[in-house]
Write a structure and sequence with these properties.
By secondary structure, the chain is mostly beta strands. About 0% of the residues lie in helices and about 45% in strands. The chain has one domain.
Amino acid sequence: MTMCCAVRRVMMCFMGGGRNILIGGEGADTFRVNDSNQGVDTVEDFEVGSDMVQVLSENELTFDDIFLTQEDSVAIIEAGDATIHLQGVDVDDLREDDFILI
């Protein structure tokens, strides 16, 4: 497990194949993942309407390529081989403008 903490606006975690915990800093954060990462990244403090999830892809991903599901109090995002868990977030609160697809 890797713990990553943001001290600036962009939180990057490219450690594939493991369970990574991402914690943002004060204010708006962008949590950046690569869609080819295998494993689960967990964001512990995602703020809907303030924070963003950025997915880097070699393919041209659109919002329709991202699968959103809910498990208990965790919004689950699947993009390519990457899985992102947003603790304490209701998937119904997520909108297309919460994502940056590159």
